[in-house]
Design goal:
Elements: E1 2-7, H1 15-25, E2 29-33, H2 45-48, E3 54-58, E4 66-70, E5 74-77, E6 90-95, E7 100-105, H3 119-138, E8 145-150, H4 163-166, H5 174-185, E9 190-191, H6 192-196, E10 206-207, H7 214-217, E11 220-221, E12 224-228, E13 236-241, H8 243-246, E14 257-261
Parallel strand pairs: 1-2, 7-8
Antiparallel strand pairs: 1-14, 2-4, 3-4, 5-6, 6-7, 8-12, 9-12, 10-11, 13-14
Helix pairs in contact: 3-5
């Protein structure tokens, strides 16, 4: 099973990018974040015509939104109302072999890394605390869970272009990293991307639009993640960040993350 997670930054604005990605990489499952479209206006035909007949979408106008498209049949699972805000940040499905897939878009958190001064940052921390509590309650040794999405935290020193310069910048502050680590501990999650790329190597999935030459400056951050529970560790086969997608005309600021699993199709 080839799975991709991608903050698309408006699915309707980047349908040509999605089409090119599908033709190039032939994924089986596509997880999108920041789709920015209501469910009734989602361009479903662009996906179903290419064999993605199974889908679960949760969207709203202009903001947030998550979606899962699959060539493999699944059952859509119920999602909590995170932080008492129905702001479309989580969608989950279960495949026939029992594997659950959770697609998240964690709040970005604004610009000021202080929950007392910034409601958006407080929301981000509260969201991760609820994720920790929720998965702690669901934890079981035989759970086959995959968690993907734009988690809006770059936890490791080599997940950012400058650890020292970004310590006080939202997405890499110690409090955010601690909260994300708590989520990881909640189900002994395995970082699938770092399963293939050691922590000593730089690894990014997001580059700011503000940089005129993102490749040359390479001031990136790894905000996008793929995690698996221990029961799925042995199914991990390959990982790739599609930098070509970030280099296309009018791209998303996030590159797609691809992970191959040895799971039944």
């Amino acid at each position: 099973m080839r799975l991709v997670t991608w903050n698309i930054n408006s699915v309707r604005a980047r349908l040509a990018h999605v089409d090119h990605f599908i033709q190039t990489h032939d994924p089986d499952v596509i997880c999108l974040q920041e789709t920015k479209v209501t469910d009734n206006e989602f361009p479903l035909k662009a996906f179903t015509k290419q064999g993605f007949e199974h889908y679960a979408i949760a969207g709203q106008k202009s903001y947030n939104g998550v979606a899962i498209f699959s060539k493999l049949p699944f059952e859509t699972l119920e999602s909590p109302i995170w932080c008492d805000k129905d702001d479309k940040r989580h969608v989950a499905v279960q495949f026939k072999d029992g594997t659950e897939l959770h697609n998240f878009y964690v709040p970005a958190g604004g610009d000021v890394p202080d929950p007392e001064l910034n409601d958006k940052f407080a929301h981000k921390l509260a969201f991760m605390r609820q994720m920790t509590a929720w998965f702690s309650e669901k934890k079981a040794e035989n759970n086959k869970f995959i968690l993907v999405g734009d988690l809006n935290v770059a936890p490791l020193e080599n997940d950012v272009w400058s650890h020292k310069q970004l310590l006080k910048i939202v997405s890499h502050t110690p409090i955010e990293v601690d909260h994300l680590n708590d989520v990881m501990k909640s189900h002994d999650w395995i970082d699938a991307m770092r399963h293939f790329i050691p922590e000593s190597e730089r690894l990014y999935s997001w580059w700011s639009y503000r940089s005129k030459d993102w490749k040359k400056t390479n001031k990136g951050r790894r905000l996008d993640h793929v995690w698996v529970t221990p029961a799925l560790k042995e199914t991990l086969q390959h990982m790739l960040i599609d930098l070509d997608a970030r280099d296309r005309e009018k791209p998303s600021d996030h590159a797609p993350v691809i992970v191959d699993f040895a799971l039944p199709l």
